[in-house]
Amino acid sequence: MSGKLKSIQSERVSFLDGLFVDYEGPNFAVRLWDGFSWRFSDREIPACTLVFKNPASLRSLIVNPNEITLSEAFIHTDVDVEGDLFSAFDLVEHILSRPVELQHSFLQKISKASFRAKQWLREARRHTRQRDRTAIAYHYDQPVDFYRLWLGKTLAYSCAYFRTGDELLDEAQENKLELICRKLRLEPLERFLDIGCGWGSLILHAASQHRAYAHGITLSEQQANTAIQRIDQANRTQSCSVELKDYRDIADTPPFDKIASVGMFEHVGLEKLPLYFSVAYRFLKPGGTFLNHGIARSPLSVQHKPSFIDRYVFPDSELVTLNQAVEAAEKAGFEVRDVENLREHYEKTLRFWVTGLERNAELALQHVSETTYRIWRLYMAGSAAAFRRGDIAVYQMLLNRPMNGRSRLPLTREDWYSPGSRS
C-alpha cells in the first residue's frame, strides 16, 4: 500500500472514530466503494453494514446531513444497508444530532453530491380539496396487489392490536377492527360512517360481524374501486357502500349512529382540525360516539426539516400533538370519554409490514419501481424506530356527542374486552 493510500485510509478511520465516539446503539460496520471497511466494535458481529457505493454518497453522511440527503442516498441505491435495516436508524439519529464539519483533506476531494429529489408542490400547505386529493393519490394509488404483499388479507393499513403479543399480523388486524367496533358499541342495524375507509376493511367488519349498515368515504380512487369490489365479493352490497368523497363534502344524509376515522386525520392539518371534528359532530346523532384513531407527535420530539416522509411518502401530512387534537375535539362539542395509546402496537405492526415487504421483494418489484420499493421499506422501518423512541404515538380517542348532558354509555369499559360481548 502506497504512503498516500495509507494516509487516506488513516484519515477515514480517524474521521469515523471521531464521528461515532459517543455512539451507544447496535454494533455496525461501514464499507466504501473502493473496498475500505471499518467496524465500530470488534467485540461483536455488526447488526448492519452501511455500504457507500460512490464518493458522492459519502457526502450525504458528512456534509450537512439531514433526512432528505440520507434518505435519497438510500432510495436511489447510492447507499445500501446490509443486515438489519431497523438497527440503522440508531445511526441516523446519532448523525443528525451531531453537526459535523468538513475537516479532512480526503473529503475535500469528493465532488459535490447530486441527489435526485422528487419535487413536491412548493406552496405552503393549504389543504384545499384538490391539493388533498392529489396528495392522497400520490401515496395510496399504488396497485392494490403491491399492498396485499405486506398488509395481509385484511388490507388494513393502520396499527394492528396485539392482545397477547404472539398473534400474527392478520389476527392482530382483526383484533383491531373488532376493538374499534366494541369501543363504539356498534349495534345491529345502526348506521355507521368510516371517514377515510381505505380498502374497506372496517366497514366490511362492521357489517359482517356487527350487522351494521356501514358507509365509507375515501379520496383515493384506487381504494374506492377495491373496496367496492371487496363488498361485491363478500355479498355485502345491501349493508356496505363506499364513495369517493372529501369529508368536507358530506351532505344530504341523515346523521349516523356511530362514526370512526382510522389513520386519516394525519392528512387533515392543524388549521383544518376544528373543521374536521365539527363535521364529525354535525353528522353524528346526539348520544352517538366517534372513534378517531390516528398518529400524533410528541411535543418533546425533534422535528427534522426537511422531512423525508413529507416529500416522498405523505405529501402535506401534518402530525399534531395529542393536546391539539383533544382541544379541537372538545371545542367542536365532543366529550372525551377515553384515550388509549397503542404506540408499541404500531412498532410491532410496522415490523411485520417491513418483513412482509422484504420477503416479497421480487413480487413487489413487478408492481412498483425499485425506488418506490425502497421508499416504502425505508419509511416503514424509520417509522417503527420513531414509535420505539416515543417521537410519535398512535391514539384511539373515543368521543361522545352528549344528549342533554347524558352520554348513554355504560359506567365501565368491561364490555370492550369480554369474550361474549360481540353483537
In short:
The chain has helices at residues 3-19, 55-62, 67-75, 88-96, 105-108, 129-140, 144-151, 169-184, 201-210, 221-233, 273-282, 308-313, 322-331, 343-359, 361-364, 370-389, 414-417, and strands spanning 28-31, 37-39, 48-52, 79-83, 191-195, 213-218, 240-244, 256-262, 284-297, 335-341, 392-400.
Secondary-structure blueprint of this entry?
Blueprint: H1 3-19, E1 28-31, E2 37-39, E3 48-52, H2 55-62, H3 67-75, E4 79-83, H4 88-96, H5 105-108, H6 129-140, H7 144-151, H8 169-184, E5 191-195, H9 201-210, E6 213-218, H10 221-233, E7 240-244, E8 256-262, H11 273-282, E9 284-297, H12 308-313, H13 322-331, E10 335-341, H14 343-359, H15 361-364, H16 370-389, E11 392-400, H17 414-417
Parallel strand pairs: 1-3, 5-6, 5-8, 6-7, 8-9
Antiparallel strand pairs: 1-2, 3-4, 9-11, 10-11
Helix pairs in contact: 8-9, 11-13, 14-16
